[in-house]
Amino acid sequence: MQTHDLIGIGFGPSNIALAIALDEKRHTGQPVDALFIEKQAGFTWHPDMVLDHAHMQISFLKDLATLRNPTSRFTFVNYLHEKQRLPDFINLKTFYPSRQEFSDYLGWAAAQFADRCAYAEEVFEILPERQGDEVSLLRVRSRCADGSVRERLARNLVVSMGGTTNIPEAFRPFKDEPRVFHSHNYLSRIDQLGPLKKVAVVGGGQSAAEIFMELHGRDASTQVDLIMRARAIRPSDDSPFVNEIFNADFTDYVYDRSEDERTHLFKEFWHTNYSAPDLELVQQIFKVMYEQKVAGKQRHRLLRRHQVQEVRAGADGLHLRLLDTDGQLEHANRYDAVILATGYVRHQHKAVLAPLAPYLGDFTVDRNYRVRSTPGFRPQVFLQGACEATHGFSDTLLSVTAVRTEEIRCALEEGRAQAPARSRAAALQA
């Protein structure tokens, strides 16, 4: 059985950035034997939301490396140089590349670590390996596409599994209904349904707004209802002083606050990251609605302050019972498809780490994203993208990815240096 210094679960942007950080330090410190395990058959990054005209909401300078090492060969600028598009990109005069281009950049970076990633394997269990009164290693169990199980040993672990789709309670019984699906699967699922007369999009954030506009341009005969709990589509606040909350040094500020202070911060800045599309997109939707009024023909509707009370699937379509919370009035609508642009939850790490709960407790982390553990538990376990409650809104975004991976790398190096001699010898024997 192979033993690695580090195993990373998932190979999305966060762990790609970590692979880069480790690679760029291999000549200046003790090399780290790192392996990453990814359930997808190859690198993908939200492929079903790479819509025409969709662009990044974050500057290209917040890529996988620049804020950590501007001279890295893995910067977005160097990607453009190698692709021979740098002068043309400069002429675009933008900090926000298309989502398609940034996805290609991430795939370009991932491809350079193909020999350090095991694709098409899903990690389903992490078990402690005891030696005497200590846990010195972790047994990582993954299932391959053919159903076979592989096991590897790790001295340290980085969990970066991303989010899982947030499905409102009323829609949970319909997980196998092809006419109800999350925005995460938008392009592949919408194309399978063929022509649609009436579609509901549930949500009021960036994904909901993008899908609304995509459906508007897809087929002039399709009617779309945008169902949202809020009174208005509120644009994200990306003004300079507000945007400072996404700076890497703001992580220290958030982490050092009390729980009550963090709750106040999250409430104050909620609309910088959630239920807040780009202003340009909001203006496009308003223009569509206004032009309907001019033409005197209502094709789309914005159902504000509405909640889905009940869902029923029939041969003739999906029937939604909606509550208008302004007047407490209920009404029913029939749709050919319902798209849930309802965001993500980030608790997946707790399930895969459950066998380690006796040693990791409630999975609280220190400033360097390392899960606090009991004495005698020697492996270091780090979380990426699951620490928003203690580290701030930037934790699930690209904003701090490059800097965070350097902090994890340094913590990993420090932990290895401080490991008791007995544990190091046992690990080497393994």
Automatic annotation (TrEMBL):
Family matches, as Pfam families: Lys_Orn_oxgnase
Pathways per UniProt: Siderophore biosynthesis
GO biological process terms, semicolon-separated: intracellular iron ion homeostasis
Cofactors, names only: FAD
Family: Belongs to the lysine N(6)-hydroxylase/L-ornithine N(5)-oxygenase family.
Lineage: Bacteria, Pseudomonadati, Pseudomonadota, Betaproteobacteria, Rhodocyclales
Protein name: L-ornithine N5-oxygenase
Keyword Oxidoreductase attributed: yes
GO MF annotations, alphabetized: oxidoreductase activity
